[in-house]
Amino acid sequence: MNSNTIDSLREALKHSPDNVPLRLLLAENLLALNELQEAEDEFTTLLRYTNELKARIGLAKVFFRKGNFSACNVILEEIVEQGTQDVEILTLHAKALLNENAVSRAVEVYQMALEINPGLSDEELDSQLRITSIYEEEKSSEALDGRFLQKPDVTFADVGGMEAVKKEIELKIIKPLLHADLYKAYGKKVGGGILLYGPPGCGKTFIAKATAGEVNAKFINVSLNDILDMWIGGSERNLHEIFELARHNTPCVLFIDEIDALGASRSDMKQSSGRHLINQFLQELDGIDNNNDGVLILGATNTPWNLDPAFRRPGRFDRIVFVHPPDDASREAILRLKLSNKPIGNIDYAQVAKRIENFSGADIDAIIDIAIELKLESSFADGIPKPIETKDLLEAVKRHKPSTQEWFTTAKNYAMFANASGLYDDILTYLKIKK
Ligand SMILES: Nc1ncnc2c1ncn2[C@@H]1O[C@H](COP(=O)(O)OP(=O)(O)OP(=O)(O)O)[C@@H](O)[C@H]1O
Ligand SMILES: [Mg+2]
After folding, report:
1. Residue 35 is part of which domain span?
2. Separation of alpha carbons 149 and 234, rounded Å
3. Whether residues 195 and 290 fall in one domain
4. Do 235 and 359 sit in the same domain of this protein?
5. How far is residue 134 from each of residues 85, 130, 245, 261, 352, measured CA to CA in Å?
């Protein structure tokens, strides 16, 4: 394989440009020579008129080498979904996923490869995914810091509405970090946390990430599902390591997303092991053996009713905040935010906002997406992007059902029949139901 081969392949292609195997050979040779751009061009050309698996794999490999992991994953995801048994592809996909921080999916895909070939051992994946102690790894490399210690670049300005939630976070998290000295003067510890709960897609994760942009402190972002991955290691130990990471990086906001996983673990796992994890979690929150001073906790869940009441004691999640679907003004604000960098014409935001009652932020993302697709179709003819207008958004609204209603059906039951402590009064108020 050398440049002579390439030249002769190109020459041959001139005479039969539609010869798929020939172009494939050229593309693969270019890839082998690490001529990434040229290889990409050839694979892309091929994929314009065939759906040849080898070309898709080749293109994925090019993207991987270029560091474009998300494009690589899009291609491989489809191939894996179609049931590939190719260990090399599964391994590549796992690596690309890992590079995108999709740890639990990477574990899944690597496990698929191991099922096909139990003797398989990939050094990189083994060391990254079968970590015995997260903290040990942290000491030896920056990798863990990179994975969990993040500084997302969204701020409150990117979050439409949600004023009440912003205010709680301001009071309980931002202010204490800003005035740590004042707290010290009064001998008050900076700690404790907020638990955000509510229907899916209404901005819990989003506002938590935006909090990171607001505070001048370290921000650790983990999903309980990542911690719970049995294969990676014991959940209790992982949970401990995460808290340790936070304690070693104060002042620090520790955001634990998808605490619902605790509920799931309680019913799915043996009762005792689930209990064990909950106790570990409570212990970490208290920081009995370890000092939690300077660690602020932000949690999010869809199913607060699965959470042990012990989590709500002072010093643990001492504020429980209901994140409801955006109100009229917030929906308008979110629409404006999301459309601000799109080609738009005249848009009657208030009118659209009125029509999307019960829509979550994620639903609003969805209708904008639909509107854009509709617009794209009509722009193909002349290649000129047509501005999005009110009627496009209203048309999109018709095609999308709000995703928050199911949650309220369940939540309402808890709020009406399991609300002795008044915990869910906010839900009743929102639903305009009197106690
Ligand atoms: N107030 C908002 N302003 C701007 N965008 C929002 C807002 N609320 C939600 N979004 C958009 O909706 C998407 C989904 O929100 P997010 O992931 O935060 O929901 P969630 O409450 O964490 O849902 P889940 O319970 O399913 O985890 C966000 O990525 C964001 O683009
Ligand atoms: Mg979320």
Report:
1. 3-124
2. 21
3. yes
4. no
5. 31, 10, 9, 20, 47
Distance between CA atoms of residues 337 and 158, nearest Å: 7
pTM score: 0.67
Chain centre distance of CA 242: 18
Average pLDDT, the chain: 86
395 C-alpha vs ligand 2 centroid, how far in Å?
28
Ligand 1: lining residues by beta carbon, under 6 Å: 159-162, 200-206, 300, 302, 326, 334, 337, 361-362, 365
Segment 11-21, tens digit of pLDDT: 999 998 889 99
DSSP string, 266-286: HHHS-HHHHHHHHHHHHHHHH
State the distance from the centre of ligand 2 to the C-alpha of 201, rounded, in angstroms. Answer: 7
Q: Are residues 373 and 248 in the same domain?
A: no
Shared domain check, 200 and 101: no
Q: How far is the CA of 351 from the centre of ligand 2 (A)?
A: 28
For a mutational test of ligand 1's pocket, the pick from 165, 205, 328, 410, i.e. the residue with the most ligand atoms closer than 8 A to its C-beta, is 205
- Ligand index nearest the alpha carbon of residue 403: 1
